[in-house]
UniProtKB/TrEMBL annotation:
<feature type="compositionally biased region" description="Basic and acidic residues">
    <location>
        <begin position="68"/>
        <end position="98"/>
    </location>
</feature>
<feature type="region of interest" description="Disordered">
    <location>
        <begin position="1"/>
        <end position="20"/>
    </location>
</feature>
<dbReference type="Pfam" id="PF14181">
    <property type="entry name" value="YqfQ"/>
</dbReference>
<protein>
    <recommendedName>
        <fullName>YqfQ-like protein</fullName>
    </recommendedName>
</protein>
<feature type="region of interest" description="Disordered">
    <location>
        <begin position="68"/>
        <end position="112"/>
    </location>
</feature>
<dbReference type="InterPro" id="IPR025571">
    <property type="entry name" value="YqfQ"/>
</dbReference>
Amino acid sequence: MRPRVTGFERPPSAGAAGKLTDPANLQQLLANTQQVLNTIHQMGPFIEQYGPLIKNLPSMWKLYRELKSLPDEKDKKTDESKTEDPKKEAKEKPDTAHEKKKPASSRPKLYI
């Protein structure tokens, strides 16, 4: 008489070591490893070409944000049309800018 099989029994195996020593499994493992290495080898030029771009992305993003925050040409034209005499304002600006400057701090003199 045969023992009852419930479906939860596993066939006897040698475990992980048995799977690695099986020639079919070993050949499949080596083929997959070789495929991964070939893919990495093909990605080398791509990484060399686009690596510097990726490294510079943060600084390019900052530059983009700064350029985006600058006023547009249309805004400049409307601002110029609103001012009555731009030459007068240009002359007044240096005077007011000069008044706002902080006095230069004293520096020690170097005697040689």
